[in-house]
Amino acid sequence: MSVDSLFTQPGLYGVTGALAIGIGVYGLIVRPHLVRKIIAVNMVGSGVFLLFGAVADRAAPGPGGDPVPHAMIITGIVVALSATALAATLTLRLSRETGRTALPPEPEDPAVQDKES
Amino acid sequence: MPGVVWGPDVGSGLLALAVVLPVAGALLILPLGRHAERVPHLLFMAGLVLATAIAYHVWIGGVLTAAIGGWPAPLGIVLRADGLSAVMLLTTALVLVPVGIFAAGEFQPRTADGRESRAGLLFWPLMMGVWAGLNGTFLSNDLFNIYVALELLTLAAVPLVTLEGKAGTLAAALRYLLFALLGSLLYMLGAALLYGTHGTLDLTLLADRVRDDASALIAAALMTAGLLAKTAMFPLHLWLPPAHGGAPAAASAILSALVVKASFYLVVRLWFDLFPSLLDDTGATVLGLFGAAAILSGSVLALRQARLKLLVAYSTLAQLGYLFLMFPLAGGGTEAQPWTAGAWSGGIFHAVSHAFAKASLFLGAGILVQGIGHDRIADLRGAARSLPMVIAAFGLSGLSLMGLPPSGGFIAKWLLLTTAMASGRWGWAVVMFAGGLLAATYVFRVLNRAMATPEQPLRLVQPVHQSRQLAVLFLALVSVLLGLVPAIPFELLQIGGGLSTVEGFR
Description:
The complex is a heterodimer. By secondary structure, chain A is an all-alpha fold.
């Protein structure tokens, strides 16, 4: 791929998508706050959708493009919306019940082990 | 559509029905509310009949395909059932029926005073969602459709973990959800790259077009990493024990027995059917090393648990490890070897027999919690006397975990072991022996306690209904019976499979 192809429209979409995925994965791993983690997952998702859009344009350049990736992006957005709603609800419940907005650093949290003893 | 169901190809109608039935069930149970008591059981029974019919069709007539709505690939979405799909479908249905019977003792849409119970009702549509996701994953022949099925599976499985509303399970569910979401996004990224290169997502068409090049390798690596996170394979496994150990017993059984197997099934599909030429020695060895690390670390951690449910959850980590030993043993650039088919069948057979054994173990732990009020292993004295059926089932399922005859787990591990020895790769064999010994240690640790005579007789805090105990025993018996009649599932498994299933790898 030559440098020029980066400055075409699909090229820009692709690079932006890749950047968004990178930032999202970084945020998901590094940021402890759950709301940030949820946003990070959505960043990754948006990046993947952008890449899919670039793919659609490359397959059939011009207005409209290849409709199959478009259909997938729409399905993907619906799935991402439901997943975000579920994650946000769980985060709200967690902060209401325990006052925390981050996951405990170790998954073998005593909360799970102690709850029955 | 009568044309699809009653037309000349009844078989393809059956495939569509296998996905429609659970979705329709979920939509039916919600509005029925407290009147839905019997509906899930009828649906599970219907599902078992349906899965048997599909398996029979595949057995007699070979691979079944159905182009939904009459649209063929690449534009339409094709459902496809070969021997592997049929076996997974049948396993799912056969686990769901007893788990449903067990769960009825805990989750009733109608409370004693005739009102609607929230958790009691919601459990069932979520189970239907998990079931739809599983069937969709096993039957889809399209990478994007599989993504949708996987997400449905996640979105139905995560709430099951928090159903009892305990604070401790919320963090576990969130961690599970975040791992699963990142996993599916990585998977979708891989699918997008494949679509960009080859212009189709249909597995059959893709298998012909995929070349042994960098873009395919990147796509395969991304998809595998995502699926490993969903399978809870080492090193992406930390979310599993709190989630599976904290969920209600019936939900844990489904999560550990079936849900993690769906993403494993896809890893197998990817590497053996879609990218067989990409699986070189290095890649296969890396997957195998992850599996070996999972076997050893999971077993050691299982040994150190104080609670039975967590012990069973850690044992899931270890047993999942065996599944990934099939990659170095059945794949990995070896020329068509007579033994590789054995490793492939052994891996799949392990997934199936572990499903029954682990469902039985989790349900058994649930009965102990109900019957004696806790599942602390140190205080299990006298449990064998008060709940003999449950402890017997624990022992029988334990056979599969240890890999002792006669059990499904024995056949599976024996196939993997003989492959390792026949090909002179002793390292894998040593790991399997060590895993078996460790499993024996943690199983006997529990059995020892449960069979010990208590100072004073153990009193049940709450009676356990006979049908719930029978469900546990039934699952354990199936896991043992699999070791006695292994020939039938093997022949079914090989129908429509890639080269690896029959004569090994090119």
